C-alpha cells in the first residue's frame, strides 16, 4: 500500500503542476497558479516522506523523480489527445 501511495502522490503532484500552468490543455482554464503549486509541492513532499520510510534514500529519490518525469512528460501528450477529441466532437 505504501508503494502505491508513493507513485500516486508523485503523479498527483506532477498533474497539479501541469494544470496550474497557463499553457495546459486538460482544463478550459488553468487552475490558479499559487494554490496549484502549493498543493503539488505538498503531494510531492508526501511522496518523498513515504518513499524515505519505505525505501533506501537514493532509491526513494530516484522513484519520486522518475514518477515526476513520467507524469510531466505524459500529461502534455494526453492533453493534446483530449484537445483533438474535443475538436472532433465539436465539429459534428
From TrEMBL:
Keywords of this entry: Membrane, Transmembrane, Transmembrane helix
Transmembrane segments: 6-23, 35-55, 61-82
Keyword Membrane set for record: yes
Membrane keyword on record: yes
UniProt name for this protein: Uncharacterized protein
Amino acid at each position: 500500500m505504501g508503494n502505491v501511495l508513493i507513485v500516486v502522490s508523485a503523479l498527483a503532484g506532477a498533474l497539479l503542476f501541469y494544470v496550474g500552468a497557463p499553457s495546459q490543455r486538460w482544463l478550459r482554464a488553468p487552475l490558479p497558479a499559487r494554490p496549484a503549486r502549493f498543493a503539488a509541492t505538498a503531494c510531492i513532499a508526501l511522496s518523498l516522506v513515504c518513499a524515505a520510510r519505505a525505501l533506501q534514500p537514493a532509491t526513494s529519490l530516484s522513484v519520486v523523480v522518475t514518477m515526476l518525469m513520467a507524469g510531466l512528460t505524459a500529461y502534455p501528450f494526453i492533453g493534446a489527445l483530449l484537445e483533438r477529441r474535443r475538436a472532433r466532437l465539436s465539429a459534428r
